[in-house]
Amino acid sequence: MSRVFINYRTGDEEASATLIDRELSHRFGSEEVFRASKSIRPGDDFEQELLRAVRRSDLLLAVIGPGWSDATGRRGGRALDDPDDWTRREIAEAFAYGVRVIPVLVNNRQRLPKGDLPDDVARLENCQYLRLSHRNADADIERLVQKVAEAVPRLADRGTEAVSGRPASAAGGTTRNSVRDLHGSSRQGGDIIDHRSGGTGDVGNNYGTVIGTAGGPLHTGSGTQVNGPQFNGSGGQYVAGDNHGDVHQGAPQRTERRAPRRRGEGGT
Question: What is the mean pLDDT of residues 59-78?
Fold first, then answer.
């Protein structure tokens, strides 16, 4: 169920509606944000999908630009005066089902004048609005995200990313995934964080091996590991690194051992 419904008029600030959708989806997840051209699948009954999405939402954002009020309808005349105008119908449905409605005024759009709207959407004139200026887009989008999180606390429950500017996956939460035919427990690799200053060890309950800061070659298999040259026998010398001074190398001195003299034997 999408918690935020983005309402906009074709021909009036579709780009702003797309920007809002992108930012909210980045913070809360795409499935939490409904925008008709994104959320309705080809072949679906768009009328049923639109009205169902409005009724199930917690919040409707009405994106209102300079051409929103005076746009011409399919039958001629002002679109807002046509009961079948979808922008009007979505807002009216939200009011009828108790869904909070927040107007988002884009750029230099002024707030809606009193008495200008049909009765079923007239409450929109009194709704406190947010503003989105393309010259101040970063700050305005951040404020909009915060206000959406305040209006829909269940979105904020997904983590602090709504106010910190971090995407949901970066906040240390559980990564969504699907595992089939699994017997036993499953852990997502991205959910396991283990910091070690050195050495090797297991990551929480034997979910794998972590290698810290190894100071040299590391052997993880079986058998003998030899780092550097290997010398067998005598007389070998290996010098690594810088050498300042002399290196003396010689064969080991051999001491001759004599048999002890017997009593009575002479010698020189």
Answer: 93
